[in-house]
Structure formats: C-alpha cells, structure tokens
Specification:
Blueprint (H helix, E strand, L loop, with lengths): L21 E3 L6 E3 L1 E4 L10 H13 L4 E3 L10 H14 L7 E6 L14 H15 L4 E6 L8 H13 L3 E7 L3 H14 L3 E5 L13 H8 L2 E5 L36 H16 L4 H10 L6 E4 L4 H8 L9 H11 L1
Parallel strand pairs: 3-4, 3-10, 4-5, 5-6, 6-7, 7-8, 8-9, 9-10
Antiparallel strand pairs: 1-2
Helix pairs in contact: 1-2, 1-9, 3-4, 4-5, 5-6, 7-10
The protein binds NADP nicotinamide-adenine-dinucleotide phosphate.
Length: 337
C-alpha cells in the first residue's frame, strides 16, 4: 500500500487529451498515444510506490492512456502488476474505459513445466494470475511475449484466441516475433477470427532489426507496432556520458539487463556524436531518440520507461520537434550504421 501520500485525492487534468497525438493502430479501430508508458523496471516491490504513483498520474495527466505490463515485470516478478493494481484502485478505477492496459506472458514466470513458453496451459493461467494481481476484469491487449520454438505456433495463437474469446482480453498481440513468424501468426489468428492488433518489438538507434523485414510485414498486413526501449534503456540519453550515475538503471544491482558491459567506450563515442546532433536540433538526446523511432511509418507508439515524472515530461517534449531534415538523417545514419 502507498503511505505518506501528500495528495491522496487525484483529479486528472481535464485538458489531458489536448497534449499529444493519437495514431491509428494498423487497420484497427484503436487509436494509441504516440508515447506510451511501460512498467518494466521502475514499478516493482523494490521501487518507491509514491514515485510510481506520481509517474502514472503524470502520464495520464499528459494524455498517455496506454500502460504496458507483463507477468514478470518488477523486480520481483509480478510486483509491477501488484503496484499498478494498487494505484489503479486508488486513482484510476473510475477511468478504466479511458485506459488501454496490456500484459504479457512467455518468459519464465514460475517453476515447473507450465511456468514458461507458449502453451495454452501457461498463457491462460498466467493471464488469470495477471488479472488477479492487477485487480482488472480484463486487459486491453494480451501478448505472447516471445515466440517459443518448442510450442507449435498454432497452439500459442489458439491461446491468444481463447484469451480474447473468453473475455480476458480485448485484443491479441505478439512481441519479439521475427518477420516470418509474424506472418504465420497473422494468418493463423485471422483464420481463428481474432485478428492480431499489434506487434511489440525493440527498436532504437542502436537496434534497427525491425527494418529488415518486420516493418514490411506489418505495413502490408495493416498491423500496428508499439516499439520498446527507444532509449536503449537510458544509454541513448546524456546520462552515461560522464560515467554511471548512482541510482541509474545500469548501477542497480538487481537489474540484470543493463550494466557496465553495455556501456562501452565505442557506444559512448556514438552517444556523444548523437548528443551533438540533438543539441543542434534544440532537443535533448532522449527526445531525439524518441522522435527518431516515430518517423518510421510502421511505428504506432513509442513505449518508454521512466524512473521519475520529470523524465516523462522530458520525453513528451520529443513530440514537439518530430521532423528530421535530410542532413540530420544522413548524419545520424553515418553514426549508427
Ligand atoms: N516486449 C518486450 O520484450 C519488452 C522488453 C523490454 C521492455 N519492454 C517494454 O518497454 C518499456 C520501455 O522499455 P525500457 O524501460 O527499456 O525503455 P527506455 O525508454 O529505452 O529506457 C528507460 C530508462 O531510460 C531512462 N530515461 C527515460 N527517460 C529519460 C530522460 N528523459 N532522460 C534521461 N533518461 C531517461 C531511465 O533510466 P534510469 O532508470 O536510469 O533513470 C529509464 O528507466 C518497458 O517498461 C516495457 O513495458 C518490453
């Protein structure tokens, strides 16, 4: 529970839908905010609950109505869903119909043969656990988090179809699927009558894999994309230019996905050059990195993480300077290619 909250009564900003743009997700009826907020690393049991609450309020006040969860977000696994559920009950319960909330399953979650992968057994029971942790009646999107090579893709898609048909989620999504797997998933889901809404891949200036086939599939099939880690977990900002600051993601011992090994001299050299281009455009590197993902026509929404409400404000300013001239693009390509 949240204690010592200086402002227990939350009245959302009445002007919240006049701040950012909303873009259609593929050929669906759904509009998504150009910037969405993910709860991967800063909403766990180890994090400040008051700060988590302040971030969710800040995001919603600015028009960010899409929040992204997964069964294993924390740290510890499951705890980001608990945090979200507690805050939802206190601040957002009367705004459920304004929110688009996602969760996922695919990576390891609990011990034994049914706690990971792509089986109907795992995906359905994990979805039920996620609903219980968040206290939600349904998710807007439920994703298969990653392709499981040991489960027939037909079975994983059958699980998504069942999750939607049984009312546990409104739409089906896939994440981290390669182009050919995506094409297959789309075709199977179409045949089941539960079309794929969205793909969630990683995309940033240091990781452009989606440009090699995936975006072609998504555009041709009318599927939207919500791209994650646009800031390469914070490396594509100016925060690591003078070493690893205390409390940064790379300095947190409980986080295994970002550390010293990811912040090499070679990478920092590129970050410095990109930072100069961002300065010449009159924006921070974080803002330029976000704006850069959004110029890809296959990208519906850019999914950031944040560790403070101030970072959300800073990231939102990316939307005020979205254009890149030809020289900017050529200069950026020369650095990142
Ligand atoms: N589908 C998947 O497999 C998958 C995988 C990973 C993530 N995701 C989703 O994508 C979301 C975003 O991923 P991510 O957290 O890696 O995104 P990210 O935006 O690349 O990185 C977030 C980190 O960047 C730093 N940051 C954010 N705004 C900043 C700013 N304005 N200035 C300076 N630093 C800033 C913060 O680092 P500090 O904490 O150091 O302050 C923050 O924790 C996740 O929450 C999750 O929902 C999905």
């Amino acid at each position: 529970m949240i204690t010592h909250d200086p402002n227990p009564l939350y009245a959302p900003n009445p002007d919240r839908y006049n701040h950012i743009k909303y873009q259609r997700c593929g050929r669906s009826g759904i509009l998504l905010p150009r910037l969405s907020l993910g709860l991967w690393q800063n909403f766990g049991a180890v994090n400040s609950q008051a700060n988590a609450r302040a971030m969710l309020r800040k995001a919603f006040d600015e028009g960010i109505c899409h929040f992204d969860l997964a069964n294993n977000y924390g740290p510890n696994y499951g705890s980001a869903e608990h945090t979200f559920g507690n805050i939802f009950k206190q601040d957002f319960v009367h705004h459920r119909d304004e929110l688009f909330i996602a969760s996922k399953a695919g990576y390891d979650m609990w011990p034994g043969p049914y706690g990971k992968g792509g089986s109907v057994k795992y995906l359905v029971s994990s979805c039920d656990q996620s609903l219980a942790r968040t206290g939600l009646k349904y998710f807007d999107i439920f994703y298969h988090h990653c392709m499981d090579p040991e489960t027939p893709i037909e079975e994983s898609m059958r699980a998504l179809d069942y999750i939607v048909r049984s009312g546990r989620a409104l739409y089906a999504g896939i994440s981290n699927y390669r182009p050919e797997q995506t094409r297959e998933a789309i075709s199977i889901l179409n045949s089941l009558g539960t079309p794929l809404l969205v793909h969630q891949p990683r995309y940033n200036m240091f990781d452009r894999w989606i440009e090699n086939g995936l975006t072609d599939v998504l555009l041709a099939e009318g599927i939207g994309s919500i791209v994650f880690s646009p800031l390469a977990q914070g490396v594509l900002t100016n925060k690591y230019l003078k070493g690893i600051p205390a409390n940064s993601r790379a300095a947190r011992p409980e986080i295994i996905h970002l550390g010293n090994k990811d912040i090499t001299t070679e990478k920092l050299d590129k970050v410095k050059q990109l930072n100069s281009i961002a300065e010449s455009r009159g924006q921070s590197l974080a803002q330029m990195a976000i704006a850069w993902t959004l110029i890809n026509p296959a990208v519906t929404s850019c999914l950031i993480g944040a560790s403070s409400p101030e970072q959300i404000t800073d990231c939102l300013a990316a939307l005020n300077n979205p254009e890149f001239n030809e020289k900017d693009i050529l200069d950026i390509n020369a650095i990142i290619c």
